Amino acid sequence: MKSHKTVSIAGLGAIGLPLARSLDQGRAPGFQLISVNSRDPAKAHAAVADFAAKPRVCISASDLVDADIIIEAAPAAAFLGIARPAISAGKTFIACSAGALMRNIWLVEEAEREGARIIVPSGALIGLDAVRAAAQGHITSCTIETRKSPSGWLGAPYLAENAITLEGLTEAECIFEGNALDAAAGFPANVNVAAALAMAGIGPLNTKVRLIADPAADRNIHHVVVDSDAARFTMTVEGKPSPENSRTGLLTPLSVIACLRSLHETLRVGS
Ligand SMILES: NC(=O)C1=CN([C@@H]2O[C@H](COP(=O)(O)OP(=O)(O)OC[C@H]3O[C@@H](n4cnc5c(N)ncnc54)[C@H](O)[C@@H]3O)[C@@H](O)[C@H]2O)C=CC1
Ligand SMILES: O=C([O-])CC(=O)C(=O)O
C-alpha cells in the first residue's frame, strides 16, 4: 500500500495552473494538492475557485511547507524564497526553474544536511535519461541549440545588456553562444532546459549553448548533441508554446505530472 502524499505549488502560471488543475482532476493518483501560492493572492483564489477540492491560498511561500512535496513553478527571481523553506523543512522539492537552481547549486548541500530531496523534472526537454546514463561513463561534449520566436526571448537581461533588439527581425539570428552558466544568467526565464541538461550531464561550464531567435519558429525547438565514450546521440524536441506564456512549452506541466507519478509507480520505465 503506497502512502498518500500532499503537494503544494508555488506559482500559478503556464506550468503551475495546468498542473494544479491536473492534480485536482486526479491525474496523479495518491497525490493531493493542499496549498498554492502566487504573486497575487486574489488571482490565485480566482484561479482555483472552480476546483473540486480547493487548495489553501498561502500568502507566503513558507506556509507551503506543510505539504510533503513542494513544487516550484514561479519566476527565477522568486526561486530562493520558495526553495529555502522547503529544503530547510526537509521536504521533497521539485524545481521547474532549473536555471535558478543551477545558479544556486549550494542548495544541494543544504538539502543533503536537512534530509530534503531536490528533483528537476525533464520539463520541456527529452532524453535526460540518456544523458544521465552517458554521464556514468565519460561525456566528451554536450551542446544544445534552442530556437524560439523573438517573443519567446523578450525581457531577457542579456538582450538589454548587449543592445540586441528583436523587433522587426526578418530572419533567424543567433543571439547567444556560450556556456550554460552564462546562458542562465543572461536568460533566467528561458534556458531551463540547458540548465537541466548541464546538471544531468557534464556541468554548466562544459555544456555549450546556442540561442536562436527565429521569426519563422512557431515551436520552441531544442536540439541536443551529446558525444560520450558509450554513445553519440542527437535529440530534437519541438514543443508547442503555451498560449499563456510563449516562453514555456505545453510539455512542461505534463512532465511534472509524470515526475510525480514516477514517485509512486510500481513499474517505472526509464532511468
Ligand atoms: N524546466 C523547464 O523545462 C521549464 C522551466 N520553466 C521555468 O519554470 C518557471 C515557471 O514558468 P511559467 O509557469 O511558464 O511562468 P509564468 O510566468 O507563466 O508563471 C509564473 C507564476 O508565478 C507567479 N509568481 C510571481 N512571483 C511569485 C512569487 N514571488 N511567489 C510565487 N509565485 C509567484 C506568477 O504570478 C505566475 O502565476 C519559470 O522560472 C520558467 O523559466 C519554464 C519552462 C520550461
Ligand atoms: O521550451 C520551453 O518550453 C522552455 C524553455 O526553453 C526553457 O525554459 O528552457
UniProtKB/TrEMBL annotation:
Its EC number is 1.4.1.21. NCBIfam families: PRK13302.1. NAD(+) binds at A124, N192. GO terms for biological process: NAD+ biosynthetic process. Residues 170-257 form the Aspartate dehydrogenase domain. Gene3D superfamilies: Dihydrodipicolinate Reductase, domain 2, NAD(P)-binding Rossmann-like Domain. PANTHER family: ASPARTATE DEHYDROGENASE DOMAIN-CONTAINING PROTEIN (PTHR31873:SF6), L-ASPARTATE DEHYDROGENASE-RELATED (PTHR31873). Specifically catalyzes the NAD or NADP-dependent dehydrogenation of L-aspartate to iminoaspartate. The active site is at H222. SUPFAM superfamilies: Glyceraldehyde-3-phosphate dehydrogenase-like, C-terminal domain, NAD(P)-binding Rossmann-fold domains. GO terms for molecular function: aspartate dehydrogenase [NAD(P)+] activity; NAD binding; NADP binding; oxidoreductase activity, acting on the CH-NH2 group of donors, NAD or NADP as acceptor. It catalyses: L-aspartate + NADP(+) + H2O = oxaloacetate + NH4(+) + NADPH + H(+); L-aspartate + NAD(+) + H2O = oxaloacetate + NH4(+) + NADH + H(+). InterPro entries: Asp/hSer_DH_NAD-bd, Asp_DH, Asp_DH_prok, L-Asp_DH, NAD(P)-bd_dom_sf. This is L-aspartate dehydrogenase. Pathway: Cofactor biosynthesis; NAD(+) biosynthesis; iminoaspartate from L-aspartate (dehydrogenase route): step 1/1. Keywords: NAD, NADP, Oxidoreductase, Pyridine nucleotide biosynthesis. The iminoaspartate product is unstable in aqueous solution and can decompose to oxaloacetate and ammonia. Belongs to the L-aspartate dehydrogenase family. It is an enzyme of class 1 (oxidoreductase). HAMAP family: NadX. Residues 11-121 form the Aspartate/homoserine dehydrogenase NAD-binding domain. It comes from the Bacteria.
